[in-house]
Structures are given as structure tokens and as C-alpha cells.
Amino acid sequence: MLGRVLSTHAANNLSALPDAPLHCVTQGHGSDGAFRAQIGLPGHQVPRWAAGTKLRYVICAETFPHPEDAALAASNLAQAIDQFADVPVTFEEVTRNTKAHFRVVYKDPVCADEANVLASAFFPNRGPRNTRTLHIYALAFRKRHIGSQVQVLAHEVGHILGLRHEFAPESAECRSFTYGRRNPDSIMSYPADWSTAKVTQQDIDELRGLYLDTRLFLQDDAGDDWHFQTITPRPFLYPYENTRRNWGFMAAFWSFRRFQRHQQGNATAR
């Protein structure tokens, strides 16, 4: 199942199942725009990037505790993105002082609601730059979860491409509908073990269908029309989040990234 589209009237935090101890908060609707998804769409809108869009992103390495953490997150995000290679939207990591369409930021939890959060992202939008932030929380670097960080980030990339949680409700309070078939194995579900999660072929096929759909609108089972909002994103220059980090810290980060890419290149050549 793809694109369980939420109306702008949703008020609840839909991010977690009752018994899910670890989750992302991308489908939450909090007032803090930098840390919650920003839908910002009037009526029944289906947001998607324009087919062929290249989403450029910047790793805000200075927000991470150590250069190694930032480099690991960058490498894991690249691996997560690779799982969506057949989707008509591509991604490119750019250097820190280059304009980008979204940023990647480390975040410590600041309230009880964030204590069990691994990551949060955003849906396609035209909003200001801070509404396009992928947050990776401290919990994702703990020993218990660091081995499944690629899978967690693949889940967040799904949100960035427009996917909602597989279990998003279809209620009057939060209108949604199913594009395609339900998929309990989707990367957008909450697995009991994140290390077993993966992007399925159904995820890819339905994402391709969404992006290549030429209809002006979709119709749900209730007969309501949902209109596509196709977005060509504007790039921004993201200012440094932590000016106390010196050039040595950033140089160490890029040194780790070069080493990672060299290792990946060697592995590909074998």
C-alpha cells in the first residue's frame, strides 16, 4: 500500500501504534515545524515531487557528537536511498556550503514524547527550509539500534518520497485512502525487529505508479476526489547549526566520507 494520504484536518499524532515502543514521528502534527512533518496542503491534496526531480541534501555534520557519527549517518542514508533506485526521483549528497533541498540533522530528545524516537522526516512540500529536515535521534546510535539504522532511514526516505505509515487510519478525523494494495511487509510498517525491514518491490512499483500517474485526481472509496500537488522544490543554503565546531571537526568528517566512498568503490570493483 502506498500513499495513505492525510488531510490537513488531522490533529492526532499518528506516528505510533499503541504497543510500538520505537517509532518515527513524521506523521505527527505538532506545532514545532522543525521537528514534525509539515503537510500544509489545502483540501484533499496528494503531494509528490515532480518526476525526474533530483533532491540534493546536506549532512549538517556539526550537529553530531562526533565526526564518525555524522559519516556513519551519511553512509547509512546513502544505502537507504539506494533501495529506492528505481523511483523517478533521485538524491544527491552535496557539500556543507552548497544549496540543498533538505538537511540531515542529529537531535537529542527534548521531551518525553521523543524519548523512543529513532528518526523523523517530512513529506513533499514547498515550505520554508526548516520544514525539510531529516532528524536522526540519539537513540538511533545506541548499540541496540545502530545495526538497523539503514532500515530506519529507508523508512524516512519513504516519507520524503510521499509514503505514509502503512497503518495510517481511514477515519473522519484523519481522512486517508489507499493507493494500491495493503502491504504488511512494506518499509512503511513498524516491524517487531527493524533489522528485518526492507523496501519491497510493491513499495517501488506503487511509488513509480504514483509518480508516473497522469490523472489530475484520484477518487477514494467514499467518492471523494484527491488532487495531485506536484512540487518542484526550491534549494536553500542551510546555515551552520553549531558554530562552535571548528574546521578540524568538519575536516575529519569529510576525511571519513572520502574513506567510506573509497571503500565502497573498492567493494563495487570486486
UniProtKB/TrEMBL annotation:
GO terms for molecular function: metalloendopeptidase activity; zinc ion binding. One of its GO terms (biological process) is proteolysis. Pfam families: Peptidase_M10. One of its GO terms (cellular component) is extracellular matrix. The keyword Zinc applies. Transmembrane segments: none annotated. Keywords: Hydrolase, Metal-binding, Protease, Zinc. SUPFAM superfamilies: Metalloproteases ('zincins'), catalytic domain (SSF55486). Residues 45-202 form the Peptidase metallopeptidase domain. The keyword Metal-binding applies. This is Podospora anserina S mat+ genomic DNA chromosome 6, supercontig 4. It comes from Podospora anserina (strain S / ATCC MYA-4624 / DSM 980 / FGSC 10383).
